[in-house]
Design goal:
Elements (H helix, E strand, L loop, with lengths): L1 H10 L1 H7 L22 E2 L9 E4 L15 E5 L2 E5 L7 E5 L6 E7 L6 E8 L5 E7 L6 E7 L6 E2 L2 E3 L6 E3 L13 H4 L6 E8 L4 E6 L2 E7 L10 E6 L10 E10 L2
Antiparallel strand pairs: 1-17, 2-5, 3-4, 4-17, 5-16, 6-13, 6-17, 7-8, 7-16, 8-9, 9-10, 11-12, 13-14, 14-15
């Protein structure tokens, strides 16, 4: 997704200077954090093994290995940890279970650099609605992207600048719910942060949250993808990110009846 990210960065360059995170003189941010009842959430990861998960090398992100391997995935410090297995070769790891309408919650502590994603209703080819975890310069967190889908779905309301603590607004029908200068008060790089996504119906309505703050709402215009699918985590192909890692833990799902 880096080519698309570059396009977004160029479009926002005109206003980037005014959106840079500034000093410490601004008043404390007043985030509209939502509360959730997760008492009935089902754990998808035991913190010890990859039981219940399967690595797929069938996506385009595994092209470097000619679809023979899907990146390196293992459990480290009670987290699913992923990286490219050889320079440029990534892939996805999917739940064995499929879900229709659901809410998924994960905690994430990725390095700033690798491209990742949280896939909703995925198949083993990686076709899915994606909660964007483009955690790098010109990337985004919490946007919605149609991975391998028709329709050119790509919704984001901010982009990272070269520093993880600096973001700039992007135009989107669902605007950013806070000022860019407040980002460091919401997101704590190097710590565990919570990502949450909900998908219902088909055509689906997708809602995303970061640390309890709503980041994106998107309703598709047609039923272009399957009614149910797996939940997947991604290590993006391209470049050389063999020494940088994505990390996810406390992964839970709440099926919606």
């Amino acid at each position: 997704m880096r080519l698309r990210n570059t396009i977004w960065c160029c479009l926002s360059a005109v206003v980037a200077a005014s959106m840079l995170v500034g000093g410490n003189s601004a008043p404390a941010a007043d985030f509209k954090k939502e509360k959730f009842d997760d008492s009935k959430a089902i754990s998808l990861f035991d913190g010890k093994t990859l039981e219940g998960w399967t690595v797929s090398a069938k996506t385009g992100h595994s092209a470097t290995s000619k679809q023979t391997s899907g990146g390196t995935w293992k459990v480290t410090d009670e987290a699913i940890t992923g990286t490219q297995d050889v320079p440029g070769n990534g892939g996805i790891i999917l739940t064995n279970r499929s879900f229709k309408d659901f809410e998924v919650i994960v905690e994430m502590k990725n390095d700033f650099g690798p491209d990742s994603g949280l896939f909703l209703r995925s198949n083993d080819r990686g076709q899915a609605y994606q909660f964007m975890v483009d955690y790098h310069s010109e990337g985004n967190l919490g946007g919605v992207y149609g991975e391998g889908l028709t329709g050119g779905i790509h919704h984001r309301n901010f982009s990272f600048l070269s520093d993880v603590k600096q973001i700039t607004k992007n135009d989107d029908p669902f605007p950013l719910q806070f000022e860019p200068a407040d980002w460091p008060a919401l997101w704590k790089h190097g710590e565990w942060n919570e990502l949450r996504a909900r998908i219902v119906n088909n055509p689906p309505t997708i809602t995303t949250w970061v640390n309890g703050v709503r980041m994106m709402e998107f309703t598709d215009t047609e039923a272009r993808h399957q009614n149910e699918g797996q939940i997947a985590l991604q290590v993006h192909g391209g470049g050389d990110y063999t020494n940088q890692f994505v990390r996810y833990k406390n992964i839970r799902v709440k099926p919606i009846e």
